[in-house]
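ASSEMBLY PREDICTION REQUEST
Request ID: AP-0331
Submitted by: J.K., bench scientist
Number of chains: two
Total residues: 224
Priority: normal
Notes: Please return the full assembly, not individual chains.
Input sequences:
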Amino acid sequence: QKEVEQNSGPLSVPEGAIASLNCTYSDRGSQSFFWYRQYSGKSPELIMFIYSNGDKEDGRFTAQLNKASQYVSLLIRDSQPSDSATYLCAVNILFNDMRFGAGTRLTVKP
Amino acid sequence: NAGVTQTPKFQVLKTGQSMTLQCAQDMNHNSMYWYRQDPGMGLRLIYYSASEGTTDKGEVPNGYNVSRLNKREFSLRLESAAPSQTSVYFCASSPGLAGGLEQFFGPGTRLTVL
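STATUS: Completed
Returned structure:
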């Protein structure tokens, strides 16, 4: 079992819809969780981080964490074509050891 | 601020050749990282350095060596390149000493080993 798993997609949503991206992780001791966005041919950039159970909102983005279920998700409201990218879930499993999922490719259709 | 810079942007090597990938950050960050990204595999940690003078192995260290030259610079060396090392290499930095904080990524180096 991979330490961090994501649906590879691709996920396609119409403009203005909610996109839901999911991630599960295997290490129960993990404390820090991150969502990065990566455009094709570019480097990852941070969208959100979350440390505590529950929801964290930042503009159109909401991260949700459930440590009991070892599950973290990212919701993108009012999706825009510019949101089309690969979204990487990352989990800090121990000190500086960060593990990434394979990514979910999102396409937002106008 | 330039953030995290990497050189070169592209490189083609023959099997058995050696090379060093350079990374520098100007954000006064403590921790620095080297990742490789392969299609369908996500990012995998090769080595990291929590502070000047310290380095630790990540998930896939075999075939690589690193040097934390000073607080700003962290280099990755391939002593004898193999086709399996064809990948995109990203350097990253983070302000923390023990992880748990955001990482900032460089633009990447696309390496092909023939």
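REVIEWER COMMENTS: The interface with chain B takes residues 4, 8, 31-32, 34, 42-46, 49, 51, 88, 90, 92, 94-103 of chain A (CB under 8 Å).
SIGN-OFF: pending second reviewer
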